[in-house]
């Protein structure tokens, strides 16, 4: 007899516990009350006795703290780490968000700040993936004094929606299918309607993500986790729908307002070379912030879920970046990975070829009237130079 697939916060907690059985280091999972106790943020804490700057991690859309399982042991080696279920997702409160995009965004920001105050944390290194990257940047605009360093991992919502959508890079087939079917609905409404078939559909649609964990978990616990994260009250999901025009585009994109983050806030952008998020936007951020420290890292053979595609490279880069936040650095010793250096060398050649072509085409265009464009300093070019000075 057909029975609908049950879901509950308890089942989600049990599946999460199964996932965290793969951790080698001790962790503590606990709720942090915010908004005078009316809401709660589920938090996983590790190595809280370390004196180094805490790393706070925000997951992406439809996810939760469980998907950091390939990273938590490593990134908590030298510092406190706090991984949050973003308000409205995972095991955090499924609150009712305002349907206005600006107000919904503000509710997310306020929840992060209230959480920080409740945890009695000072300056933090804030890392966000996808939607978590968007929220991390928004938070940094309003609370820059709390940010030691900002790490955006393949962030959603940076560029403006182009008039000609053909200019965007190809995105995965599962996103195209989901986007076309569910545009009038919340993103995961069909998943909840599928009932008992939900986990198996997740396993097929998100097989690209689930395969990344197979070496650790040969069973279906990741598919189960994703299902129970998204089969409950679609609180954060509804808020995300308020923030977006389409799955790939934000109503209030970050790039036009990226300089609302003060120049004193340094940041790192980590992209996957095969992601549906165009990594060139990272270099646009660097170009838009010529007086700020902006590092861009493109990890080869990684897609949107960089942290799971290449966890060793990702962990190493995050650790080195965070370690440099706890000591004075110069422009000569900011970490650049071997993969990133190889990418940059190729990009340098492409940039030089492009500049030569432009010089040839321009010819005598720069007349006595002069060039109306501001001159570009090659030493500060967002593609050619990824070093920083504090």
Summarize the structure.
With 390 residues, the chain is of the alpha/beta class. It has helices spanning 9-20, 72-75, 101-118, 131-142, 173-182, 189-193, 198-205, 207-210, 221-230, 235-243, 280-288, 306-309, 311-325, 338-362; strands at residues 28-34, 39-46, 55-58, 81-84, 124-129, 147-153, 244-246, 249-250, 267-272, 294-299. The strands form two sheets. The chain has an eight-stranded mixed β-sheet, with helices on both faces. Strands 7-8 form a two-stranded antiparallel sheet.
Secondary-structure-based class equals alpha/beta
Helix content: 25-40%
Straight-line N-to-C gap: 65 Å
Order of helices and strands: HEEEHEHEHEHHHHHHEEEHEHHH
The chain-level mean pLDDT equals 81
Kindly report the oligomeric state of this protein. Answer: single chain
Instruction: Let me know the largest β-sheet.
Output: 8 strands, mixed
Record field, number of beta strands? 10
- The share of residues in extended strands comes to 5-15%
Could you give the order of strands across the largest sheet?
1-2-4-3-5-6-9-10
Radius of gyration: 21 Å
Number of helices: 14
Low-confidence residue ranges: 330-345, 362-387
- What is the approximate shape? globular
């Amino acid at each position: 007899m057909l029975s609908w697939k049950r879901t509950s916060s308890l089942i989600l907690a049990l599946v999460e516990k199964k996932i965290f059985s793969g951790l080698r280091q001790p962790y503590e999972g606990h709720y942090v009350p915010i908004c005078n106790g009316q809401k709660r943020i589920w938090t996983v804490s590790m190595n809280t006795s370390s004196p180094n700057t805490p790393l706070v991690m925000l997951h992406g859309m439809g996810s939760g703290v469980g998907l950091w399982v390939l990273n938590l042991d490593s990134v908590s080696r030298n510092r406190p780490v706090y991984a949050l279920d973003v308000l409205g997702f995972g095991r955090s409160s499924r609150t009712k968000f305002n349907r206005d995009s600006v107000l919904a965004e503000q509710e997310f920001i306020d929840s992060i700040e209230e959480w920080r105050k409740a945890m009695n944390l000072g300056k933090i290194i804030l890392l966000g993936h996808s939607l978590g990257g968007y929220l991390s940047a928004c938070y940094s605009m309003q609370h820059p004094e709390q940010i030691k360093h900002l790490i955006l991992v393949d962030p959603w919502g940076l560029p403006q929606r182009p008039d000609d959508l053909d200019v965007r890079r190809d995105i995965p087939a599962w996103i195209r299918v989901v986007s076309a079917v569910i545009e009038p609905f919340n993103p995961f409404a069909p998943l909840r309607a599928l009932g008992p078939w939900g986990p198996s559909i997740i396993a097929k649609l998100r097989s690209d993500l689930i395969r990344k964990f197979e070496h650790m978990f040969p069973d279906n616990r990741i598919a189960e986790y994703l299902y129970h994260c998204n089969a409950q009250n679609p609180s954060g999901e509804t808020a995300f729908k308020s923030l977006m025009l389409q799955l790939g585009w934000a109503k209030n994109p970050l790039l036009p307002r990226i300089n609302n983050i003060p120049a004193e806030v340094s940041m790192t952008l980590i992209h996957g070379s095969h992601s549906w998020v165009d990594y060139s936007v990272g270099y646009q951020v660097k170009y838009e912030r010529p007086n700020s420290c902006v590092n861009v890292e493109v990890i080869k053979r990684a897609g949107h879920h960089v942290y799971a595609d290449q966890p060793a490279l990702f962990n190493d880069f995050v650790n080195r970046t965070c370690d440099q936040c706890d000591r004075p650095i110069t422009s000569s010793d900011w970490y650049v990975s071997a993969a990133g250096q190889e990418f940059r060398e190729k990009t340098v050649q492409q940039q030089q070829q492009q500049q030569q072509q432009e010089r040839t085409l321009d010819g005598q265009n720069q007349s006595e009237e002069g060039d109306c464009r501001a001159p570009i300093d090659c030493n500060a070019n967002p593609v050619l130079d990824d070093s920083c000075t504090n």
